[in-house]
Amino acid sequence: MEKGSQTTTAAATTAENSSAFSFISKGWREVRDSADADLQLMKHRANSFKNLAASFDREIENLIQSAAPTFSVPAIRQSSEIDFMKKLQPKISEFRRVYSAPEISRKVMEKWGPRAKLGIDLSRIRSAIVAELDETEDEDMYGIMEFNKFRKGRRLRFTEEGQSGDWEPIQVLKTRLREFEKKSSSGEIFGGFKNSEFVEKVKSSLKAICKEPQESKEVPPLDVPELVAYLVRQSGPFLDQLGVRRDICDKIVESLCSKWKNQFVLRSLAEGESLTVDSDKINDELDLRIASVLQSTGHCYEGGFWTDFRKHDVSDGKRHVAIVTTASLPWMTGTAVNPLFRAAYLAKSAKQNVTLLVPWLCRSDQELVYPNRLTFSSPEEQENYIRNWLEERTGFKADFRISFYPGKFSKERRSIIPAGDTSQFIPSKDADICILEEPEHLNWYHHGKRWTDKFNHVVGIVHTNYLEYIKREKNGALQAFFVKHINNWVTRAYCHKVLRLSAATQDLPKSVICNVHGVNPKFLKIGEKVAEERELGQQAFSKGAYFLGKMVWAKGYRELIDLLAKHENDLDGFKLDVYGNGEDAHEVQSTAKRLNLNLNFLKGRDHADDSLHGYKVFINPSVSDVLCTATAEALAMGKFVVCADHPSNEFFRSFPNCLTYKTSEDFVAKVKEALAKEPQPLTPEQIYNLSWEAATQRFVQYSELDHVLNNEHNPAKVRPNGKLIAKSLSMPNLSEMVDGGLAFAHYCLTGNEVLRLCTGAIPGTRDYDKQHCKDLHLLPPQVENPIYGW
Questions:
Q1: Measured on CA atoms in the order 330, 331, 334, 336, is the torsion positive or negative?
Q2: In sequence order, which residues have a C-beta less than 8 Å from that of residue 708 and are 6 or more positions away?
Q3: Predicted local distance difference test score (pLDDT) of residue 382
Q4: N or C, which terminus of the chain has less Cβ within 10 Å?
Q5: Where are any strands of DSSP class E within 594-690?
Q6: What was the pLDDT predicted at 270?
Q7: Pfam families annotated for this entry (predicted)?
Q8: Is the pTM of this model over 0.85?
Q9: Model confidence over 53-87: pLDDT tens digits?
Q10: Would you say 298 and 292 are in contact if contact means Cβ atoms under 8 Å apart?
Q11: Within the chain, which residues score under 70 in pLDDT?
Q12: Do residues 277 and 265 lie in contact, with contact meaning Cβ atoms separated by under 8 Å?
């Protein structure tokens, strides 16, 4: 019985032990599941923290991007705010990078992962179990070993006796994460960055840390580099006369003003502009710096010794444009025809009153200049001839005034030289805008009021390559050297802006290159007629090649004869008709006859004459032209043009019917090509580019006439902080002072009759003579003006 009872007791004990271990295993599974859940929650919280850090970084970037357009603050202050945020952004990025690095995650998981030791004390449970198993030590040995193995793997410490739950570090971390998540979701953390109050505090702090010198009561005085830079920049035209290039002066100014580069970069970054710093920005900043210093002292520059600011006042609301040229119809030359069309198309807009001022020649000079010995007894008679000729070609009646100034014809220079002060023939009430056609020619011997003093804006248009003509004369190189510098002198002294028709002319001060000439509308109509005939299948061109031009050697006749003489055999059977009159006609014809060239010389005629419509090829080998009007007219009529690869023909290269050659062999190939093919019809765009409407638009743009007509010629400069600095009369301009000095020196030299004669002037052209007084109803000229320009 005892043995049976012992067996029953042992079985009961074993069952109890099994129940105990079962309870322990179940409790351990719950603890393990809870730990795993906590670890998953920790991973989730860590990922959430990383996302919040990334969101914070994005909020900082959005704040930087929206700083400039959101707040209307000066550019310098915006740059300071952006600089502050730029410094803050790397810190945030570094924080996010460090705490989201794989090493941090690995260390956390090593500390809190499933293989780590968790500090939970199970000693009390063990004591209770051991006390109950004193009698069954052998049977329970296996379970104890398993428990010890479990104990070695994980040491747990319960917060309350007999209960399992989250341990203290985890509870603290979870509480902090919940609070952080709650704040972030409610916008308490990042909402402040979007609040204007935060930005206002940043701006106020930046303002307190770094005050801008512009906002201070006293403007800082100019330092030595600024003074030297301003002196170098204003001395640019004078240094240009000495051979110092403009780009060298710009580099010197840029090096002296290098301290402004950082300000330009910050300002460009804030405004979203290019970070490049060019010389124009530095020059503008230097001008504004000088003007701000002068304005702070209350100084107002009212002009120098030879500068007069009492100019035309626009009282009637309409501007006045005066066009002064060196030739007039019926002399069919570029300086007579093109200014006439310019006046007509400027007056066509009816936005301004236009006056065309042309030379009046005495009867003896008219017989030398005008074709077929055509003469006029009065200016009114010649004016009627000019208006009739213009109306026949434009198709409309132009509303502009034609005035005359006295001139004399020079046989040696083959040009008309003004006599007396030409500027006095424009009334002071109309002295607003002046266009000088051939400014160097008009001012070589000009002895009178300075154009830029009398007019608000003076534009010079260079028509002729005088250096090329002079080089062909005796001692041409020496003469060209002096004429080059004289041209620089007079254009600087008497013009605000200079337009060069092509790069074939010399590089003059204040000049830009632009073709501001158009084609007579009559030639465009001829071209349209030719295109219609070709569409109908009719033969538009029944003749071969021709050349038209004033018969002087410099107009391309020398080049033409040399090319034909060199390739007479290559161009066997080629016949060329030549139209022209001129001083060298006899010599040109005798030379061609001596060389046995197949040239047919005919009298000169208008390029629009019916007898010239049937030619298919126009040949122009001239390299002395600036922009050949005959070439443009031939292209407008739909013909082929064979011309030299020269800067004077740059504008025409875009037309498919213009064939340019570089060598004499290439000339032969282009002539044969033109004779064998048919020219292409002009497109509407090409027709417009040749028209006077397009030429007038280019002229208004490149001469800055649009700004002048809109009263924007000298606008006030705007500082980065929004202040206006009017530059015009607040600061002395050394360049204007130098130009005024050059004009004064030129006035003194041209007043000496001996110096005038030594330099090639016509005797008696310092003042107009009695015959001019009679023809133009003028008073006798004064003996001498006591003061320059007044």
A1: negative
A2: 319, 433, 456, 457
A3: 96
A4: N
A5: 599-602, 615-620, 640-644, 658-661
A6: 53
A7: Glycos_transf_1
A8: no
A9: 666 667 666 655 554 444 344 443 444 545 555 55
A10: no
A11: 1-28, 31, 49-50, 52-57, 59-170, 172-174, 176-177, 180-218, 236-243, 246, 258-281, 294-317, 711-734, 781-790
A12: yes
Q: Which residue has the tokens 């002229």?
A: 699
Rounded to an integer, what distance in angstroms lies between the CA atom of residue 42 and that of residue 326?
A: 94
Residues paired with residue 599 on neighbouring β-strands, in sequence order? 576
Report which of 462, 302, 320, 298 is spatially closest to residue 403, judged by C-alpha positions.
320
Q: What angle do CA 326, 330, 336 make, to 5 degrees?
A: 30
Neighbours of 352 (CB within 10 A): 17
Helix 246-256 crosses helix 224-234 at what angle (to 10 degrees)?
170
The pLDDT of residue 760 is 86
Longest dimension (CA), the chain: 171
What pLDDT, on a 0 to 100 scale, did the predictor assign at position 608?
87
E strands, 161-221, are none
User: Contact, 460 vs 436, CB < 8 A?
Assistant: yes
Instruction: Tell me the helices (H) and strands (E) count for the chain, helix number first.
Output: 32, 16
* Closest alpha carbon to 595 in 568, 631, 626: 568
Give me the pLDDT at residue 194, please.
46
Q: 644 phi and psi, to 5 degrees?
A: -75, 150
Neighbouring C-beta atoms of residue 778, cutoff 10 Å:
16
- What pLDDT does residue 68 have? 44
The backbone torsions φ and ψ at residue 556, rounded to the nearest 5 degrees and listed phi first, read 105, -5
Cβ contact 773:779 at 8 Å: yes
Residue 100 token pair: 């989201």
The one-letter amino acid code at 77 reads R
In this prediction, residue 1 carries a pLDDT of 45
Main-chain dihedrals φ then ψ at residue 555, nearest 5 degrees:
-90, 20
Dihedral angle, C-alpha 347, 408, 501, 653, nearest 10 °: 110
